[in-house]
Design a protein that fits this description.
heterodimer; A: 140 residues; alpha+beta; three-stranded antiparallel β-sheet; 5 helices; 9 strands; globular; B: 375 residues; six-stranded mixed β-sheet
Protein backbone atom coordinates (compact mmCIF):
# COMPACT_ATOMS: atom_id res chain seq x y z
CA UNK A 1 0.00 0.00 0.00
CA UNK A 2 1.33 3.40 -0.90
CA UNK A 3 0.06 4.90 2.33
CA UNK A 4 1.74 2.42 4.70
CA UNK A 5 2.78 4.63 7.58
CA UNK A 6 6.33 4.48 8.87
CA UNK A 7 6.32 2.60 12.14
CA UNK A 8 8.69 3.89 14.78
CA UNK A 9 10.92 1.29 16.44
CA UNK A 10 12.71 2.73 19.49
CA UNK A 11 16.35 1.87 20.24
CA UNK A 12 17.43 0.12 23.40
CA UNK A 13 14.23 -1.92 23.88
CA UNK A 14 13.38 -5.61 23.64
CA UNK A 15 10.42 -6.58 21.45
CA UNK A 16 7.94 -9.45 21.07
CA UNK A 17 6.33 -10.80 17.91
CA UNK A 18 3.00 -9.80 19.49
CA UNK A 19 4.17 -6.15 19.33
CA UNK A 20 4.98 -5.43 22.97
CA UNK A 21 8.23 -3.82 24.13
CA UNK A 22 10.23 -3.95 27.38
CA UNK A 23 12.68 -1.33 28.64
CA UNK A 24 15.03 -3.07 31.04
CA UNK A 25 16.63 -1.36 34.00
CA UNK A 26 18.27 -2.90 37.05
CA UNK A 27 15.66 -5.30 38.48
CA UNK A 28 12.62 -3.77 36.80
CA UNK A 29 11.20 -3.42 33.31
CA UNK A 30 8.68 -1.06 31.77
CA UNK A 31 6.32 -2.69 29.31
CA UNK A 32 4.21 -1.20 26.55
CA UNK A 33 2.97 -1.81 23.00
CA UNK A 34 4.77 -0.73 19.86
CA UNK A 35 3.96 2.09 17.47
CA UNK A 36 2.89 -0.56 14.95
CA UNK A 37 0.41 -2.07 17.43
CA UNK A 38 -0.95 1.36 18.37
CA UNK A 39 -1.37 2.41 14.72
CA UNK A 40 -2.98 -0.90 13.76
CA UNK A 41 -5.50 -0.63 16.60
CA UNK A 42 -6.11 3.03 15.67
CA UNK A 43 -7.90 4.83 18.54
CA UNK A 44 -7.10 3.23 21.87
CA UNK A 45 -9.99 3.90 24.25
CA UNK A 46 -9.82 1.35 27.06
CA UNK A 47 -7.41 -0.93 28.95
CA UNK A 48 -7.82 -3.71 31.48
CA UNK A 49 -4.68 -4.01 33.54
CA UNK A 50 -3.45 -6.35 36.30
CA UNK A 51 -3.30 -5.10 39.87
CA UNK A 52 0.03 -4.33 41.53
CA UNK A 53 1.53 -7.46 43.08
CA UNK A 54 0.14 -9.78 40.45
CA UNK A 55 2.48 -12.24 38.78
CA UNK A 56 2.85 -12.11 35.00
CA UNK A 57 4.40 -14.83 32.85
CA UNK A 58 6.33 -14.39 29.65
CA UNK A 59 4.08 -14.84 26.58
CA UNK A 60 0.94 -15.00 28.74
CA UNK A 61 -1.84 -12.44 28.60
CA UNK A 62 -1.73 -9.81 31.36
CA UNK A 63 -4.59 -7.59 30.17
CA UNK A 64 -6.37 -6.17 27.16
CA UNK A 65 -6.18 -3.02 25.09
CA UNK A 66 -9.28 -1.89 23.18
CA UNK A 67 -9.91 0.45 20.29
CA UNK A 68 -13.36 1.63 19.22
CA UNK A 69 -13.64 -1.42 16.99
CA UNK A 70 -11.53 -4.20 18.49
CA UNK A 71 -10.05 -5.92 21.54
CA UNK A 72 -6.43 -7.10 21.71
CA UNK A 73 -4.69 -9.20 24.33
CA UNK A 74 -1.53 -7.86 25.95
CA UNK A 75 1.24 -10.47 26.24
CA UNK A 76 4.01 -10.11 28.81
CA UNK A 77 7.46 -9.86 27.22
CA UNK A 78 8.97 -11.21 30.43
CA UNK A 79 7.99 -12.83 33.73
CA UNK A 80 7.82 -11.06 37.07
CA UNK A 81 5.67 -9.23 39.60
CA UNK A 82 3.72 -6.10 38.63
CA UNK A 83 5.11 -3.18 40.65
CA UNK A 84 3.13 -0.38 39.04
CA UNK A 85 0.62 0.45 36.28
CA UNK A 86 0.43 3.69 34.30
CA UNK A 87 -2.44 5.54 35.98
CA UNK A 88 -2.43 8.29 33.36
CA UNK A 89 -3.88 5.76 30.91
CA UNK A 90 -7.14 5.45 32.86
CA UNK A 91 -8.27 8.87 31.67
CA UNK A 92 -5.93 9.20 28.70
CA UNK A 93 -5.60 5.85 26.92
CA UNK A 94 -4.79 7.84 23.78
CA UNK A 95 -1.31 8.43 25.26
CA UNK A 96 -0.47 5.02 23.81
CA UNK A 97 -1.22 6.34 20.31
CA UNK A 98 0.62 9.59 20.93
CA UNK A 99 3.68 8.24 22.67
CA UNK A 100 3.82 4.44 22.61
CA UNK A 101 7.40 4.15 23.93
CA UNK A 102 7.40 6.90 26.58
CA UNK A 103 4.24 8.37 28.11
CA UNK A 104 2.17 5.44 26.86
CA UNK A 105 3.99 2.76 28.89
CA UNK A 106 1.54 0.28 30.44
CA UNK A 107 2.99 -1.66 33.39
CA UNK A 108 6.21 -2.00 35.36
CA UNK A 109 7.43 -5.44 36.33
CA UNK A 110 10.09 -6.67 38.80
CA UNK A 111 11.70 -9.31 36.62
CA UNK A 112 13.19 -12.55 37.87
CA UNK A 113 14.65 -14.48 34.95
CA UNK A 114 15.27 -11.93 32.25
CA UNK A 115 18.70 -13.29 31.32
CA UNK A 116 17.07 -16.54 30.28
CA UNK A 117 13.91 -14.99 28.82
CA UNK A 118 15.62 -12.42 26.63
CA UNK A 119 16.59 -15.18 24.19
CA UNK A 120 13.05 -15.25 22.86
CA UNK A 121 12.83 -11.43 22.53
CA UNK A 122 13.77 -9.39 19.46
CA UNK A 123 16.29 -6.57 19.18
CA UNK A 124 15.07 -3.31 17.54
CA UNK A 125 16.73 -4.41 14.31
CA UNK A 126 15.14 -7.87 14.42
CA UNK A 127 11.73 -6.34 15.19
CA UNK A 128 12.06 -3.98 12.23
CA UNK A 129 12.82 -6.96 9.99
CA UNK A 130 9.81 -8.76 11.48
CA UNK A 131 7.54 -5.79 10.62
CA UNK A 132 8.84 -5.82 7.04
CA UNK A 133 8.07 -9.54 6.77
CA UNK A 134 4.48 -8.82 7.89
CA UNK A 135 4.06 -6.25 5.14
CA UNK A 136 5.24 -8.79 2.57
CA UNK A 137 2.87 -11.44 3.94
CA UNK A 138 -0.05 -9.05 3.59
CA UNK A 139 0.95 -8.28 0.03
CA UNK A 140 1.36 -4.59 0.70
CA UNK B 1 -4.14 -8.00 1.16
CA UNK B 2 -4.10 -11.07 -1.02
CA UNK B 3 -7.85 -11.26 -1.47
CA UNK B 4 -8.39 -7.74 -2.81
CA UNK B 5 -8.19 -8.59 -6.52
CA UNK B 6 -11.76 -9.81 -6.81
CA UNK B 7 -13.21 -6.96 -4.74
CA UNK B 8 -15.37 -4.19 -6.17
CA UNK B 9 -14.20 -0.59 -6.16
CA UNK B 10 -16.38 2.52 -5.96
CA UNK B 11 -15.69 5.54 -8.23
CA UNK B 12 -13.94 7.18 -5.24
CA UNK B 13 -11.55 4.25 -4.73
CA UNK B 14 -8.40 6.15 -5.76
CA UNK B 15 -8.96 8.67 -2.96
CA UNK B 16 -9.54 5.92 -0.38
CA UNK B 17 -6.47 3.95 -1.46
CA UNK B 18 -4.30 7.03 -1.19
CA UNK B 19 -5.62 8.34 2.15
CA UNK B 20 -7.30 5.46 3.98
CA UNK B 21 -6.65 2.14 5.66
CA UNK B 22 -8.45 -0.32 3.39
CA UNK B 23 -10.51 -3.38 4.35
CA UNK B 24 -13.02 -5.68 2.70
CA UNK B 25 -16.67 -4.85 3.29
CA UNK B 26 -19.62 -6.59 1.60
CA UNK B 27 -17.52 -7.43 -1.45
CA UNK B 28 -16.05 -3.93 -1.74
CA UNK B 29 -12.58 -2.67 -0.86
CA UNK B 30 -13.42 0.27 1.39
CA UNK B 31 -11.61 2.47 3.93
CA UNK B 32 -12.01 1.63 7.63
CA UNK B 33 -10.45 4.96 8.66
CA UNK B 34 -8.51 7.84 7.11
CA UNK B 35 -6.94 9.49 10.17
CA UNK B 36 -8.74 8.12 13.22
CA UNK B 37 -12.21 6.77 13.91
CA UNK B 38 -12.47 9.02 16.98
CA UNK B 39 -11.65 12.21 15.02
CA UNK B 40 -13.96 11.26 12.17
CA UNK B 41 -16.78 10.45 14.60
CA UNK B 42 -16.48 13.77 16.43
CA UNK B 43 -16.18 15.74 13.18
CA UNK B 44 -19.66 14.47 12.26
CA UNK B 45 -21.13 15.17 15.71
CA UNK B 46 -19.67 18.71 15.87
CA UNK B 47 -19.15 19.84 12.25
CA UNK B 48 -19.49 17.81 9.06
CA UNK B 49 -18.09 14.63 7.52
CA UNK B 50 -18.40 12.92 4.12
CA UNK B 51 -18.76 9.18 3.58
CA UNK B 52 -18.56 7.21 0.36
CA UNK B 53 -21.66 5.02 0.56
CA UNK B 54 -21.60 3.98 -3.11
CA UNK B 55 -21.52 0.32 -2.06
CA UNK B 56 -25.18 0.65 -0.98
CA UNK B 57 -27.59 -0.73 -3.59
CA UNK B 58 -29.80 1.68 -5.56
CA UNK B 59 -32.87 0.46 -7.43
CA UNK B 60 -35.19 2.53 -9.63
CA UNK B 61 -38.81 1.41 -9.76
CA UNK B 62 -41.14 3.01 -12.30
CA UNK B 63 -44.21 2.27 -14.35
CA UNK B 64 -47.99 1.95 -14.19
CA UNK B 65 -47.98 -0.71 -11.43
CA UNK B 66 -45.05 0.71 -9.43
CA UNK B 67 -47.38 2.02 -6.70
CA UNK B 68 -49.12 -1.36 -6.38
CA UNK B 69 -45.75 -3.09 -6.22
CA UNK B 70 -44.38 -1.01 -3.32
CA UNK B 71 -47.67 -1.41 -1.44
CA UNK B 72 -47.54 -5.20 -1.89
CA UNK B 73 -43.87 -5.23 -0.86
CA UNK B 74 -43.61 -2.96 2.18
CA UNK B 75 -45.22 -2.78 5.65
CA UNK B 76 -45.25 1.03 5.46
CA UNK B 77 -48.01 2.76 3.52
CA UNK B 78 -46.11 4.59 0.78
CA UNK B 79 -49.12 5.65 -1.31
CA UNK B 80 -50.39 7.99 1.41
CA UNK B 81 -47.01 9.76 1.58
CA UNK B 82 -46.45 13.01 -0.34
CA UNK B 83 -44.21 13.06 -3.40
CA UNK B 84 -40.67 13.95 -2.34
CA UNK B 85 -40.80 11.83 0.84
CA UNK B 86 -37.92 9.53 1.88
CA UNK B 87 -39.18 6.68 4.09
CA UNK B 88 -37.23 4.22 6.27
CA UNK B 89 -38.83 0.77 6.09
CA UNK B 90 -38.19 -2.97 5.92
CA UNK B 91 -38.35 -5.83 3.44
CA UNK B 92 -40.09 -8.77 5.11
CA UNK B 93 -40.44 -12.42 4.19
CA UNK B 94 -43.72 -14.37 4.58
CA UNK B 95 -42.86 -15.13 8.22
CA UNK B 96 -42.32 -11.42 8.91
CA UNK B 97 -38.55 -12.01 9.16
CA UNK B 98 -36.47 -9.01 8.11
CA UNK B 99 -34.84 -9.49 4.68
CA UNK B 100 -33.33 -6.00 4.73
CA UNK B 101 -33.87 -2.44 5.90
CA UNK B 102 -33.97 0.37 3.37
CA UNK B 103 -34.89 3.90 2.47
CA UNK B 104 -37.49 4.33 -0.27
CA UNK B 105 -37.85 7.67 -2.03
CA UNK B 106 -41.34 8.37 -3.34
CA UNK B 107 -40.57 10.53 -6.35
CA UNK B 108 -44.09 10.42 -7.81
CA UNK B 109 -47.01 7.95 -7.78
CA UNK B 110 -45.30 6.04 -10.59
CA UNK B 111 -41.64 6.39 -9.62
CA UNK B 112 -39.63 5.26 -6.59
CA UNK B 113 -35.96 4.88 -5.70
CA UNK B 114 -34.88 2.31 -3.13
CA UNK B 115 -31.57 2.36 -1.24
CA UNK B 116 -30.72 -1.11 0.11
CA UNK B 117 -27.76 -2.71 1.88
CA UNK B 118 -24.72 -3.78 -0.15
CA UNK B 119 -24.56 -7.28 1.31
CA UNK B 120 -28.31 -7.87 0.78
CA UNK B 121 -28.57 -6.44 -2.73
CA UNK B 122 -28.82 -9.69 -4.72
CA UNK B 123 -31.22 -11.40 -2.32
CA UNK B 124 -33.39 -8.24 -2.15
CA UNK B 125 -33.57 -8.13 -5.95
CA UNK B 126 -34.58 -11.82 -6.10
CA UNK B 127 -37.26 -11.23 -3.46
CA UNK B 128 -38.57 -8.17 -5.28
CA UNK B 129 -38.68 -10.04 -8.62
CA UNK B 130 -40.95 -12.62 -6.97
CA UNK B 131 -43.29 -9.97 -5.53
CA UNK B 132 -43.30 -8.20 -8.92
CA UNK B 133 -44.81 -11.19 -10.76
CA UNK B 134 -47.71 -10.12 -12.96
CA UNK B 135 -47.24 -6.39 -12.44
CA UNK B 136 -46.39 -3.88 -15.17
CA UNK B 137 -43.40 -1.77 -14.15
CA UNK B 138 -39.63 -1.60 -14.52
CA UNK B 139 -37.04 -2.35 -11.85
CA UNK B 140 -33.55 -1.02 -12.62
CA UNK B 141 -30.48 -1.66 -10.49
CA UNK B 142 -28.65 1.68 -10.94
CA UNK B 143 -25.95 0.99 -8.32
CA UNK B 144 -23.14 0.84 -10.88
CA UNK B 145 -24.24 3.95 -12.79
CA UNK B 146 -24.30 6.21 -9.77
CA UNK B 147 -22.11 7.32 -6.88
CA UNK B 148 -23.60 7.89 -3.44
CA UNK B 149 -22.08 10.29 -0.94
CA UNK B 150 -23.37 11.03 2.57
CA UNK B 151 -22.70 14.54 3.94
CA UNK B 152 -23.46 14.38 7.65
CA UNK B 153 -23.29 16.70 10.64
CA UNK B 154 -24.65 20.04 11.85
CA UNK B 155 -22.64 21.88 9.15
CA UNK B 156 -23.71 19.55 6.31
CA UNK B 157 -25.80 22.21 4.55
CA UNK B 158 -22.88 24.67 4.70
CA UNK B 159 -20.59 22.19 2.92
CA UNK B 160 -23.13 21.16 0.26
CA UNK B 161 -24.98 24.42 -0.47
CA UNK B 162 -22.22 26.03 -2.59
CA UNK B 163 -22.32 23.03 -4.96
CA UNK B 164 -26.05 23.03 -5.80
CA UNK B 165 -28.63 25.54 -7.06
CA UNK B 166 -31.22 23.88 -4.80
CA UNK B 167 -32.09 25.87 -1.64
CA UNK B 168 -31.26 23.12 0.87
CA UNK B 169 -33.31 24.74 3.63
CA UNK B 170 -36.39 23.84 1.59
CA UNK B 171 -35.62 20.12 1.63
CA UNK B 172 -36.71 19.07 5.12
CA UNK B 173 -35.71 15.98 7.11
CA UNK B 174 -36.85 12.76 5.34
CA UNK B 175 -37.59 14.61 2.10
CA UNK B 176 -35.67 14.58 -1.20
CA UNK B 177 -35.32 16.70 -4.32
CA UNK B 178 -33.87 16.20 -7.81
CA UNK B 179 -31.26 18.82 -8.64
CA UNK B 180 -27.62 19.07 -9.67
CA UNK B 181 -24.41 18.93 -7.67
CA UNK B 182 -21.44 20.55 -9.40
CA UNK B 183 -23.56 20.52 -12.52
CA UNK B 184 -24.21 16.76 -12.40
CA UNK B 185 -27.76 15.43 -12.16
CA UNK B 186 -28.32 14.20 -8.60
CA UNK B 187 -30.93 13.23 -6.05
CA UNK B 188 -30.46 14.96 -2.71
CA UNK B 189 -32.20 13.30 0.23
CA UNK B 190 -32.11 14.71 3.76
CA UNK B 191 -31.41 11.40 5.47
CA UNK B 192 -28.45 9.54 6.91
CA UNK B 193 -27.10 6.84 9.17
CA UNK B 194 -25.39 8.92 11.85
CA UNK B 195 -28.25 10.49 13.82
CA UNK B 196 -27.14 13.92 12.60
CA UNK B 197 -28.73 16.30 10.15
CA UNK B 198 -27.33 15.78 6.69
CA UNK B 199 -27.81 14.71 3.12
CA UNK B 200 -27.25 11.63 1.04
CA UNK B 201 -26.59 12.50 -2.58
CA UNK B 202 -26.96 10.06 -5.43
CA UNK B 203 -24.87 11.43 -8.28
CA UNK B 204 -25.71 10.22 -11.80
CA UNK B 205 -22.12 10.33 -12.89
CA UNK B 206 -21.84 7.63 -15.54
CA UNK B 207 -19.56 10.13 -17.33
CA UNK B 208 -17.40 10.65 -14.22
CA UNK B 209 -17.32 13.70 -12.00
CA UNK B 210 -18.16 12.14 -8.63
CA UNK B 211 -14.56 12.59 -7.48
CA UNK B 212 -14.96 16.32 -8.16
CA UNK B 213 -18.05 16.41 -5.91
CA UNK B 214 -16.22 14.49 -3.17
CA UNK B 215 -13.19 16.77 -3.30
CA UNK B 216 -15.34 19.93 -3.37
CA UNK B 217 -17.18 18.81 -0.23
CA UNK B 218 -13.84 18.27 1.51
CA UNK B 219 -12.69 21.70 0.34
CA UNK B 220 -15.89 23.12 1.87
CA UNK B 221 -14.87 21.79 5.28
CA UNK B 222 -16.18 18.22 5.36
CA UNK B 223 -13.84 15.63 6.87
CA UNK B 224 -13.51 12.34 4.96
CA UNK B 225 -15.01 9.64 7.21
CA UNK B 226 -14.82 5.88 6.79
CA UNK B 227 -16.58 2.70 7.85
CA UNK B 228 -15.25 2.72 11.43
CA UNK B 229 -16.88 6.07 12.19
CA UNK B 230 -20.00 5.11 10.21
CA UNK B 231 -20.43 2.14 12.56
CA UNK B 232 -19.74 4.00 15.83
CA UNK B 233 -22.03 6.88 14.75
CA UNK B 234 -24.97 4.67 13.81
CA UNK B 235 -24.57 2.65 17.01
CA UNK B 236 -24.49 5.78 19.19
CA UNK B 237 -27.64 6.95 17.37
CA UNK B 238 -29.35 3.62 18.14
CA UNK B 239 -29.69 2.64 14.46
CA UNK B 240 -29.50 -1.10 13.80
CA UNK B 241 -27.08 -2.62 11.28
CA UNK B 242 -28.63 -5.24 9.02
CA UNK B 243 -26.88 -8.61 9.27
CA UNK B 244 -25.50 -7.74 12.71
CA UNK B 245 -28.41 -6.45 14.79
CA UNK B 246 -31.16 -8.14 12.77
CA UNK B 247 -31.62 -10.73 10.05
CA UNK B 248 -34.32 -13.01 8.65
CA UNK B 249 -34.69 -14.64 12.08
CA UNK B 250 -35.72 -11.28 13.58
CA UNK B 251 -39.15 -9.69 13.23
CA UNK B 252 -39.81 -5.91 13.29
CA UNK B 253 -41.33 -5.96 16.79
CA UNK B 254 -38.25 -7.65 18.24
CA UNK B 255 -36.03 -5.18 16.39
CA UNK B 256 -37.92 -2.29 18.03
CA UNK B 257 -38.96 -1.19 14.53
CA UNK B 258 -42.71 -1.73 14.95
CA UNK B 259 -43.15 1.99 14.19
CA UNK B 260 -42.50 1.35 10.48
CA UNK B 261 -45.64 -0.83 10.27
CA UNK B 262 -48.73 1.05 9.08
CA UNK B 263 -51.37 -0.41 11.41
CA UNK B 264 -54.28 -0.14 8.99
CA UNK B 265 -52.40 -1.75 6.10
CA UNK B 266 -52.94 -5.32 4.85
CA UNK B 267 -51.99 -7.67 2.04
CA UNK B 268 -48.25 -6.97 1.91
CA UNK B 269 -45.62 -9.70 2.29
CA UNK B 270 -45.59 -10.89 5.91
CA UNK B 271 -48.66 -8.98 7.10
CA UNK B 272 -50.66 -12.00 8.37
CA UNK B 273 -47.79 -13.25 10.50
CA UNK B 274 -47.12 -9.71 11.67
CA UNK B 275 -50.77 -9.36 12.81
CA UNK B 276 -50.34 -12.53 14.93
CA UNK B 277 -47.03 -11.33 16.33
CA UNK B 278 -48.52 -7.96 17.23
CA UNK B 279 -51.20 -9.73 19.30
CA UNK B 280 -48.62 -11.90 21.09
CA UNK B 281 -46.01 -9.21 21.63
CA UNK B 282 -42.30 -9.94 21.18
CA UNK B 283 -40.51 -12.36 23.55
CA UNK B 284 -37.31 -10.32 23.25
CA UNK B 285 -36.59 -6.80 22.10
CA UNK B 286 -33.65 -4.71 20.85
CA UNK B 287 -32.42 -2.37 23.56
CA UNK B 288 -29.52 -0.05 24.32
CA UNK B 289 -27.23 -0.69 27.28
CA UNK B 290 -24.83 1.90 28.70
CA UNK B 291 -22.01 0.37 30.72
CA UNK B 292 -20.56 1.73 33.97
CA UNK B 293 -17.18 0.57 32.72
CA UNK B 294 -15.68 -1.79 30.13
CA UNK B 295 -16.72 -2.16 26.50
CA UNK B 296 -19.39 -4.63 25.42
CA UNK B 297 -18.88 -6.49 22.12
CA UNK B 298 -21.15 -8.61 19.92
CA UNK B 299 -22.13 -12.05 21.30
CA UNK B 300 -21.42 -11.10 24.93
CA UNK B 301 -24.18 -12.43 27.20
CA UNK B 302 -26.54 -10.14 29.10
CA UNK B 303 -27.71 -11.20 32.58
CA UNK B 304 -30.03 -9.68 35.16
CA UNK B 305 -28.80 -8.51 38.54
CA UNK B 306 -29.03 -12.09 39.81
CA UNK B 307 -26.79 -13.41 36.98
CA UNK B 308 -29.67 -15.12 35.12
CA UNK B 309 -29.09 -14.92 31.37
CA UNK B 310 -31.63 -12.59 29.74
CA UNK B 311 -30.09 -11.71 26.40
CA UNK B 312 -27.16 -11.16 24.08
CA UNK B 313 -25.26 -8.19 22.68
CA UNK B 314 -25.39 -7.81 18.88
CA UNK B 315 -23.22 -4.64 18.54
CA UNK B 316 -20.96 -2.94 21.03
CA UNK B 317 -18.44 -0.16 20.98
CA UNK B 318 -16.93 2.72 22.92
CA UNK B 319 -19.12 5.81 22.60
CA UNK B 320 -16.92 8.82 21.78
CA UNK B 321 -19.65 11.19 23.04
CA UNK B 322 -20.48 9.38 26.30
CA UNK B 323 -16.91 8.13 26.83
CA UNK B 324 -18.44 4.82 27.91
CA UNK B 325 -19.08 1.39 26.50
CA UNK B 326 -22.45 1.04 24.76
CA UNK B 327 -24.28 -1.96 23.36
CA UNK B 328 -27.24 -2.95 21.29
CA UNK B 329 -28.66 -6.18 22.70
CA UNK B 330 -31.70 -8.38 22.46
CA UNK B 331 -33.17 -8.68 25.96
CA UNK B 332 -36.12 -10.78 27.17
CA UNK B 333 -39.15 -8.48 27.20
CA UNK B 334 -39.90 -8.67 30.98
CA UNK B 335 -36.33 -7.47 31.69
CA UNK B 336 -36.26 -4.80 28.99
CA UNK B 337 -37.67 -1.81 30.88
CA UNK B 338 -35.76 1.47 30.53
CA UNK B 339 -33.64 2.09 33.60
CA UNK B 340 -33.32 -1.63 34.40
CA UNK B 341 -29.88 -2.52 35.79
CA UNK B 342 -28.31 -5.43 33.90
CA UNK B 343 -24.89 -7.01 33.49
CA UNK B 344 -22.89 -7.75 30.38
CA UNK B 345 -20.43 -10.60 30.72
CA UNK B 346 -17.18 -9.14 29.38
CA UNK B 347 -14.74 -12.05 29.00
CA UNK B 348 -15.98 -13.83 32.17
CA UNK B 349 -16.36 -10.61 34.16
CA UNK B 350 -20.02 -9.57 34.68
CA UNK B 351 -19.99 -5.78 34.36
CA UNK B 352 -22.95 -3.58 35.25
CA UNK B 353 -24.88 -1.35 32.92
CA UNK B 354 -28.33 0.11 32.42
CA UNK B 355 -31.00 -0.24 29.75
CA UNK B 356 -31.58 3.14 28.07
CA UNK B 357 -33.62 4.65 25.25
CA UNK B 358 -32.07 5.30 21.84
CA UNK B 359 -30.23 7.43 20.92
CA UNK B 360 -27.48 7.01 23.49
CA UNK B 361 -26.58 10.71 23.40
CA UNK B 362 -28.67 13.61 24.74
CA UNK B 363 -30.70 14.53 21.66
CA UNK B 364 -31.05 18.16 22.72
CA UNK B 365 -27.25 18.46 22.40
CA UNK B 366 -26.37 16.03 19.54
CA UNK B 367 -28.25 14.69 16.53
CA UNK B 368 -30.65 16.29 14.04
CA UNK B 369 -33.19 17.21 16.72
CA UNK B 370 -30.64 19.27 18.65
CA UNK B 371 -31.62 22.75 19.80
CA UNK B 372 -29.57 24.66 17.29
CA UNK B 373 -30.41 26.66 14.22
CA UNK B 374 -30.49 24.49 11.11
CA UNK B 375 -30.14 25.90 7.65
Amino acid sequence: MSNTPEYKVADGLFYTREHEWARITEGTARVGITDYAAKTLNDIVYLTLPSVGKEVKQSSSFGTVESIKAVSELYAPLSGIVTSTNKELTNHPELINKSPYEEGWIIEVRHSKFEEEKKSLLSPKQYEEFLKSLEVEHGN
Amino acid sequence: MTTTKSLNHTPLYEFHRKHGKMVEFAGYEMPIWYTSTMEEHMAVRNHVGVFDVSHMGRVDISGPDAATFVENLLPTGIGRQPNGKSVYTLLLNGDAGIIDDLIILKVTEGKYLMVINAASRQKDLRHMQKVATGLDFKMDDITEQTTMIAVQGPDAAKALQPLTPLALSETKRFMHTFSTVKGIESVITRTGYTGEDGFEIIVHDAAGGAMGVWEALIKNGAKPCALGARDSLRLEAGLPLYGTDMDEGTNPLEADLGWVISKDKQNYVGWERLAELTKQGPAKVRRGIVMDERIPRSHFKVTDDGDKEIGEVTSGTFSPVLKKGIAMAYVETPSSRFGEVVKVVVRDAPSSGKIVKFPFYDDSVYGWKRRAPQQ
